[in-house]
């Protein structure tokens, strides 16, 4: 071509004076785009700030919306507000006064319980840390094209092995911690790898296998909790001793070391996805496995590695409770972290930064929700309702996409543009 | 029916897909809508067919403004559409397919198959369609299936028939037959909107030609206009339609396939004992109607599918057990037939896609770490060299036009030393300007001594590029011929005829 | 669920309330919401000692206060204390073991005078909080410390005693000569029921020269049938179905909500069952027709008692053990279709008295 004045840097838009861009510029390109306008945002995610903006706005809007609905629920779960309705027409002011007070009390407790004091911050951060780690695992697998429902089982296995090393062996301080940490990571990683290998070798769908592995994980935990070696001396309860102090995370600046490790994990995942060859392959396989295979990537290897790393991250999440808070092993030691992690990852648009922010939000809601219960007498279900509402408002599309495995919008738009 | 489109506009957000389009289709007219992929033809037709709501403007049928909220309303108004991809139930008969959705019943919900059969036969006779109403659709050739689609529309009393790229799936003979049918319909008073980007076809059949470029009607032309004029109107500048190329200097055999057979996942033998050679400095064109084994054959060349029998050699080394990665490292360049399916990652940026199969090289990574600066420099360089029209190198490839998407794939595959270049449908869905460019690059690669294999269903492209033409039909190479052979003869071979005259023309 | 339902119900009531143009209650109830409901009752009943400045609090384990099991019953003790003694209350539900410590601390910060924790899983967290907050009285349901802190009271229940009676009853009512029991998880608070039940059956065999078999529990090996899950009703049902297939015609499920599956199986196969923890004819009324009786663990009574002691200043760390004697445990009234003749009923009463008198020891 003789005329190529439209360098990549130049604004190639229709308004460019001098050389009108010939056919095939982005004006046409966006025809494909036009079919699914929302797609552009997704395709350009985390690439530049501008494309992030609407999603940030979406997320904030969702939080605000959820808080509004939450306020209504607080109102009507407060007995005296409801009572005041029965004489609303005689003393309407009561209703508004009581409602206002109930909402004010509730949300003030939410704020002060999550960020209002040093203790509150500690609580928020320590609750966010496992969510972030497990959420990163879900995000990572998601970016590699897998919907990892198995964080729960991976956490349980990580907790089992990490905890066992932590209380059963007698090792010098630093080494003991490292051994327990390594045990948790390896166990979680292996548990995750099972689903990866099954998918790579046999094509077994990871949603099915990870769900099943959650069950297996739980019964594995129960089985071992029934063994003398894991129970407290002179006790038949399914409850292990806590890990030794030598295996516990030291406390730094009011929070245990695990919180710092969660941040490191987030940085690592970001680096892996955005800066490493493996991450490049993972993202390619996740976005278009056929193209990745054609480009010589081993899709099977990526599946196995991605699930292994997801499991390692879940194992790290397990250490937050077992080594961080020195919780005893029980069959409930994972709480609902493994499942909340899925929501956290989707809410965070499966990016490392988003996952960290979503994890912090959920940590704060959990910590603040406790104060709402305790101080303002708001039913504990409200915290969960708030979380559910936020997810409903913001992450439902992501969830749907994840489950139905819709490819990038380019494909879908092609169908619109040429198929019809 | 006289159909008028007045100032029809469709915007998606800030992007205007159709900008005040005015168009009049007279009764009994074949109105060609010519435009490149992405010019806005489909958007326009989707509005006509009730699939999209216009942002502005109106549709007037016989003087009455109409609006269609659903395709059903459009059908009721007498608009019929034949999609590029057929919407037929393969295991139903022709008559059942035609009746689908408007079943006639006799009393207690019993389907009146006989009435359906009668109607199909009647319509088929009236318009000269020659379709057996009782044949199963899956047994019919593609061309006949298309006639079933046309019958469906006619059964709904379509006065205006929209044919969306109807020739893409047909053999040259079938295209001739389709044109005969279109003329027949026209004589009966049916208006036809014929959407295509093939200049030859509009000239052959059109009464009037409207050219759409970037969402606007940029002009109307008579069929007497030259192809060059039409191309210029369509692209917006003058275009060279033929590729200048010197005579080939065929060198040694670089790639050789020996008795390759491939069974597809459903257990059908789709490539049957295929043997051929590709020489350095020569373009081997593989012609054939879509679905005759070409796809599987070239996939086996790259190692995306393992050949179930036979061997493939590159410079004498057996690569038939290689996976894609080893084949790429062996020096095979690969432009897949469906680029959005396996040619690029749509959500990846141009920069990333340009190294999709190169990032392992020392140039672009050091150990596990990607070398961003090198990748960016590469992107800058390729975007300029291949004239990829993109806002920035960070733009997702999915939002580029088809031609620029293809340029990304081509640029990537051409940016490393190749022994063999395999390009399947290298210009499908690519605008004329980019076709010209891609063809030039392919010829340049040949002149560098690379063995080039082009798979295309477009005879024009095969003729433009090939030094030898192998024709595939039903999984076999029915003959290898010289490009001097007339189109009709190749057309016959594409339909399965293996003429001795044709077979003598080539080397294989 | 209970509260969610409450919220929903309350929202629904709004519409009704808006149409009813009522009058405001007394000034007192409008300004003091916590005591609005109970006051009328409290005043109508016999005047009991009131502690309006005393704050009693409770922390659940991860089952939540709506678990139809020990969290719920314990919580009922707290609400009863509010009704009877006018104490203020606060509660926190736990979602995961990692929250236990935080949750107890939250209650400490809310100025609670007594904190009840529910379940052995909270043992460590409760002890830790007790060490730090000497001025607060703690009580913990279903847990006993080796060396309790001076301000922690364990609330335990010798459910083996009523289970013994239940076992005797089951053996007496069995026509096939086989009775079955299964547990949620193999932990002491569960197996104590099964041990007692087994012994009761043996007692019947001894007295009557019968040979009624117990399936699902072997006291020698301390092994038996467990669903390994307190929530999964289906598991409970299939476990019970299995036992019924083996000939059991009285089922004794000790598996919390999962045990409801056992009742379902009994109902489907027209055999009898015995419920645990609460009176099944109240908490699971739809199965009342298959119940012979229920082994009741009066956690609400124990919790209320502990709160009262704390409020009165008579709190001690001495372990509370619910027995037949102090009525901390017992059998619920026989089911309406249990068909217990007077002879058997008086035999059960007799056995009960023998246990109270120490003539029979149940381990």
From TrEMBL, chain A:
Pfam families: BPD_transp_2 (PF02653). Its main location: membrane. It comes from the Bacteria. Residues 1-44 are annotated as: Disordered. Keywords: Cell membrane, Membrane, Transmembrane, Transmembrane helix. CDD domains: TM_PBP1_transp_TpRbsC_like (cd06580). It is a multi-pass membrane protein. InterPro entries: ABC_transp_permease. Residues 24-35 have a biased composition (Low complexity). The chain crosses the membrane at residues 56-76, 149-169, 175-195, 207-226, 246-273, 302-323, 329-348, 355-373, 385-404. Coiled coil: none annotated. It is found in: Cell membrane. This is ABC transporter permease.
Automatic annotation (TrEMBL), chain B:
Pfam families: ABC_tran. CDD domains: ABC_Carb_Monos_I, ABC_Carb_Monos_II. The keyword Membrane does not apply. InterPro entries: AAA+_ATPase (IPR003593), ABC_carbohydrate_import_ATPase (IPR050107), ABC_transporter-like_ATP-bd (IPR003439), ABC_transporter-like_CS (IPR017871), P-loop_NTPase (IPR027417). PROSITE patterns: ABC_TRANSPORTER_1 (PS00211), ABC_TRANSPORTER_2 (PS50893). Keywords: ATP-binding, Nucleotide-binding. Transmembrane segments: none annotated. GO terms for molecular function: ATP binding. This is ABC transporter ATP-binding protein.
TrEMBL record, chain C:
Residues 58-362 form the ABC transporter substrate-binding protein PnrA-like domain. Residues 31-49 have a biased composition (Low complexity). Residues 23-49 are annotated as: Disordered. Pfam families: Bmp. It is found in: Cell membrane. It comes from the Bacteria. Residues 1-22 form the signal peptide. Belongs to the BMP lipoprotein family. This is BMP family ABC transporter substrate-binding protein. It comes from Nocardioides oceani.
């Amino acid at each position: 071509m003789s005329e190529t004045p439209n360098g990549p840097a130049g604004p190639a838009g229709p308004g460019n004076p001098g050389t009108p861009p010939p056919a095939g510029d982005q004006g046409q390109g966006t025809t494909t785009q036009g079919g699914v306008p929302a797609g552009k945002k997704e395709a350009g995610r985390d690439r530049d700030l501008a494309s992030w903006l609407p999603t940030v706005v979406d997320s904030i809007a969702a939080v605000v919306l959820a808080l509004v609905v939450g306020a209504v629920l607080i109102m009507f779960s407060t007995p005296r507000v409801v009572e005041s309705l029965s004489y609303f027409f005689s003393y309407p002011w009561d209703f508004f006064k009581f409602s206002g007070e109930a909402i004010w009390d509730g949300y003030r407790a939410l704020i002060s319980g999550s960020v209002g004091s040093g203790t509150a911050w500690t609580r928020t951060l320590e609750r966010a840390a496992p969510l972030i780690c497990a959420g990163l695992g879900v995000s990572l697998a998601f970016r590699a094209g897998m919907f990892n429902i198995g964080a729960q089982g991976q956490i349980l296995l990580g907790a089992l092995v990490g905890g066992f090393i932590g209380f059963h062996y007698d090792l010098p301080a630093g080494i003991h911690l490292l051994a327990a940490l390594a045990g948790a990571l390896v166990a979680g990683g292996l548990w995750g790898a099972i689903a990866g290998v099954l998918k790579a070798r046999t094509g077994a769908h990871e949603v099915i296998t990870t769900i099943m592995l959650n069950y297996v994980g739980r019964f594995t935990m129960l089985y071992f909790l029934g063994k003398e070696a894991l129970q407290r001396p002179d006790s038949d309860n399914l409850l292990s001793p806590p890990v030794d102090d030598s295996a516990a995370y030291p406390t730094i600046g009011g929070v245990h070391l695990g919180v710092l490790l969660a941040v490191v994990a987030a940085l690592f995942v970001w680096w892996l996805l955005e800066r490493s060859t493996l991450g490049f392959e993972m993202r390619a396989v996740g976005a278009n496995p056929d193209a990745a295979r054609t480009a010589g990537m081993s899709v099977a290897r990526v599946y196995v590695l991605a699930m292994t790393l997801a499991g390692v991250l879940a194992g790290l999440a397990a250490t937050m409770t077992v080594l961080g808070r020195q919780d005893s092993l029980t069959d409930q030691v994972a709480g609902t972290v493994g499942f909340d992690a899925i929501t956290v990852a989707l809410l965070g648009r499966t990016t490392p930064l988003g996952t960290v922010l979503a994890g912090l939000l959920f940590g704060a809601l959990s910590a603040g929700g406790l104060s709402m219960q305790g101080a303002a007498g708001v039913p504990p279900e409200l915290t969960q309702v708030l979380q559910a509402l936020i997810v409903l408002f913001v992450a439902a599309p992501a969830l749907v996409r994840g489950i139905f495995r819709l490819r990038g919008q380019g494909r879908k738009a092609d169908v619109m543009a040429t198929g019809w | 029916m006289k159909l008028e489109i007045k100032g029809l506009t469709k915007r998606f957000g800030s992007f205007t897909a159709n900008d005040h389009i005015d168009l009049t289709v007279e009764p009994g007219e074949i109105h060609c809508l010519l435009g490149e992929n992405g010019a806005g033809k489909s958007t326009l037709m989707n509005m006509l067919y009730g699939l999209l709501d216009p942002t502005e403007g109106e549709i007037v049928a016989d003087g009455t403004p109409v609006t269609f909220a659903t395709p059903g309303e459009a059908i009721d108004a007498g608009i019929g559409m034949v999609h590029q991809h057929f919407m037929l139930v393969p295991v139903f008969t022709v008559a059942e397919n035609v009746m689908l959705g408007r079943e006639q019943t006799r009393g207690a919900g019993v389907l009146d198959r006989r009435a359906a059969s009668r109607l199909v036969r009647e319509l088929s006779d009236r318009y000269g369609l020659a379709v057996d109403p009782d044949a199963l659709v899956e047994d019919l050739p593609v061309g006949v299936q298309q006639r079933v689609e046309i019958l469906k529309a006619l059964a709904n009393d379509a006065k205006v028939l929209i044919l969306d790229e109807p020739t893409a799936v047909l053999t040259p003979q079938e295209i001739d037959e389709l044109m005969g049918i279109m003329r027949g319909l026209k004589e009966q008073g049916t208006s036809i909107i014929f959407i295509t980007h093939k200049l030859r076809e509009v000239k052959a059949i059109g009464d009037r030609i409207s050219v759409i470029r970037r969402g606007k009607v940029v002009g109307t032309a008579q069929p007497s206009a030259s192809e060059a004029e039409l191309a210029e109107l369509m692209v917006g500048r003058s275009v060279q339609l033929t590729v200048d190329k010197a005579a080939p200097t065929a060198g040694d055999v670089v790639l050789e396939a020996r008795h390759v057979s491939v069974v597809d996942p459903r257990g059908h033998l789709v490539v049957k004992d295929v043997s051929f050679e590709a020489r350095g400095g020569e373009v081997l064109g593989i012609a054939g109607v879509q679905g005759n084994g070409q796809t599987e054959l070239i996939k086996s060349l790259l190692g995306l599918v393992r050949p179930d029998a036979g061997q493939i050699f590159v410079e004498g080394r057996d690569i038939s057990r290689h996976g894609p990665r080893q084949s790429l490292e062996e020096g095979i360049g690969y432009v897949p037939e469906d680029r959005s399916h396996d040619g690029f990652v749509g959500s990846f940026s141009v920069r990333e896609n340009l190294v999709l199969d190169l990032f392992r090289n020392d140039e672009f990574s050091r150990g596990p770490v990607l070398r961003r600066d090198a990748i960016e420099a590469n992107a800058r360089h390729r975007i300029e060299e291949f004239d990829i029209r993109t806002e920035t190198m960070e733009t997702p490839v999915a939002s580029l036009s088809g031609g620029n998407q293809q340029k990304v794939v081509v640029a990537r595959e051409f940016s490393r030393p190749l022994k063999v270049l395999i390009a399947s449908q290298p210009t499908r869905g690519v605008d004329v300007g980019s076709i010209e460019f891609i063809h030039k690059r392919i010829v340049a690669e040949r002149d560098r001594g690379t063995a080039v294999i082009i798979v295309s269903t477009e005879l024009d492209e095969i003729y433009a590029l090939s030094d030898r033409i192998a024709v595939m039909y039903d999984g076999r190479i029915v003959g290898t011929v010289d490009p001097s052979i007339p189109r009709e003869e190749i057309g016959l071979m594409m339909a399965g005829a293996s003429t001795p005259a044709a077979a003598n023309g080539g080397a294989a | 669920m209970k509260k969610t339902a409450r919220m929903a119900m309350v929202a629904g009531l709004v519409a009704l309330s808006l149409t009813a143009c009522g009058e405001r209650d007394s000034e007192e109830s409008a300004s003091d919401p916590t005591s609005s409901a109970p006051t009328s009752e409290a005043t109508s009943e016999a005047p009991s000692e009131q502690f309006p400045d005393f704050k009693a609090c409770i922390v659940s384990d991860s089952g939540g206060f709506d678990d139809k099991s020990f969290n719920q019953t314990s919580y009922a003790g707290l609400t009863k204390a509010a009704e009877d003694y006018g104490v203020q209350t606060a509660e926190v539900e736990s979602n995961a073991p990692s929250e236990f410590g935080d949750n107890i601390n939250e209650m400490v910060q809310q100025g609670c005078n007594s904190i009840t924790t529910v379940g052995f899983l909270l043992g460590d967290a409760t002890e830790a909080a007790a060490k730090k907050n000497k001025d607060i009285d703690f009580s913990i349901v279903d847990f006993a410390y080796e060396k309790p802190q001076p301000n922690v009271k364990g609330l335990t229940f010798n459910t083996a005693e009523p289970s013994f009676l239940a076992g005797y009853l089951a053996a007496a009512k069995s026509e096939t000569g086989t009775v079955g029991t299964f547990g949620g998880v193999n932990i002491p608070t569960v197996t104590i029921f099964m041990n007692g039940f087994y012994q009761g059956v043996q007692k019947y065999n001894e007295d009557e020269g019968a040979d009624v078999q117990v399936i699902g529990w072997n006291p020698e090996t301390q092994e038996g049938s467990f669903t390994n899950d307190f929530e999964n009703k289906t598991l409970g049902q299939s476990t019970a179905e299995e036992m019924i297939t083996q000939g059991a015609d009285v089922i004794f499920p000790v598996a919390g909500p999962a045990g409801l599956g056992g009742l379902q199986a009994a109902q489907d196969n027209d055999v009898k069952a015995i419920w645990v923890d609460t009176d099944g004819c109240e908490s699971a009324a739809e199965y009342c027709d298959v119940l012979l009786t229920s082994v009741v663990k009066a956690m609400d009574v124990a919790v209320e008692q502990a709160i009262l002691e704390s409020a009165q200043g008579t709190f001690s760390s001495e372990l509370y053990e619910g027995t037949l004697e102090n009525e901390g445990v017992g059998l619920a009234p026989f089911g309406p279709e249990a068909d217990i003749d007077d002879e058997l009923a008086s035999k059960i009463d007799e056995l009960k008295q023998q246990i109270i008198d120490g003539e029979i020891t149940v381990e």
